[in-house]
Design brief:
- InterPro entries: NTF2-like_dom_sf, SnoaL-like.
- This protein is 26% helix and 53% strand.
- By secondary structure, the chain is an alpha+beta fold.
- The longest helix is centred in the middle third of the chain and has 14 residues.
- The chain starts with a helix and ends with a strand.
Length: 120
C-alpha cells in the first residue's frame, strides 16, 4: 500500500478509530506535535492508539470531510473537518473539529506528525 493509500484509509475508511491499523501505520518512535485548544501536546504511538480506542467508545460513527490533500515526497498534508455521530443521536453528524495535519513517513510508516486543530 502506498503512503497516499494509507492516509486515505486512515481518513476515508475510519482508520482513525482502528487501533490495529494504527499500530501498523505508526513507526515505533512516532511523535505527534499537536497545537489544539488545550495548548501544545506531544503524543507518542501509545497515546494515539489510546485516543483511537476512546474515539471508538465515545462515538457511533466518524467521518473526515477532506478539503485538501497534498503529497510531496515523504510528506502528506491533509486539511479536513472531523464529524461524528453520538450514541444519543446516531443519525446526525456533528462537526467536532477543523484540522490541518502534516504527516512524515519513514520506512513506509508515519514517523512524525504536526497538527493544528480547533473545535467547532
Amino acid at each position: 500500500m502506498t503512503n497516499r493509500a494509507k492516509i486515505e484509509f486512515l481518513y476515508k475508511e475510519d482508520g482513525m478509530r482502528n487501533d490495529v491499523f494504527l499500530n501498523e501505520l505508526l513507526h515505533d518512535d512516532f511523535i505527534l506535535d499537536w497545537d489544539s485548544s488545550h495548548g501544545n501536546v506531544n503524543m507518542n504511538k501509545a497515546d494515539i492508539i489510546d485516543l483511537a480506542k476512546e474515539l471508538k467508545q465515545n462515538y457511533v460513527d466518524s467521518f473526515m470531510e477532506i478539503s485538501h490533500f497534498i503529497e510531496d515526497d515523504n510528506q502528506i498534508v491533509v486539511k479536513y473537518n472531523h464529524k461524528v455521530t453520538t450514541i444519543e443521536n446516531p443519525k446526525e453528524f456533528v462537526l467536532i473539529a477543523k484540522v490541518v495535519v502534516i504527516w512524515e513517513f519513514e520506512a513506509d510508516k508515519i514517523k512524525k506528525g504536526y497538527q493544528i486543530s480547533k473545535p467547532n
